[in-house]
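Task: sequence design from structure.
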């Protein structure tokens, strides 16, 4: 099973609409989200895992670049989630007519 077919299946199960093409924007965006999450959970990649106090360091301090990376990933995840929910709501409204 390829990542794009797995994503299409999960969207169908979770949100109730079918992905027709593998080049669908939701598939490509969710692949980016999966890569960001896998990157974030790579053991030992960020010093904040070893020194948890670093999470309180401002983002402009050298070595605190992980905060920008995590903020960008968080924003990307929220955008995808909101877009998927909006498409599901749109489908629900269309079904009631």
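Answer:
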């Amino acid at each position: 099973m390829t990542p794009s077919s797995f994503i299409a299946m999960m969207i169908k199960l979770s949100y109730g609409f079918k992905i027709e093409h593998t080049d669908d924007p939701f598939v490509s965006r969710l692949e980016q989200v999966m890569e960001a999450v896998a990157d974030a959970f790579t053991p030992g990649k960020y010093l904040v895992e070893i020194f948890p106090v670093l999470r309180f360091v401002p983002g402009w301090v050298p070595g605190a670049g992980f905060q920008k990376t995590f903020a960008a990933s968080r924003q990307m995840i929220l955008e995808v989630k909101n877009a998927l929910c909006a498409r599901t709501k749109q489908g629900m409204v269309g079904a009631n007519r």
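Residues 5 and 46 are 31 Å apart (CA to CA).
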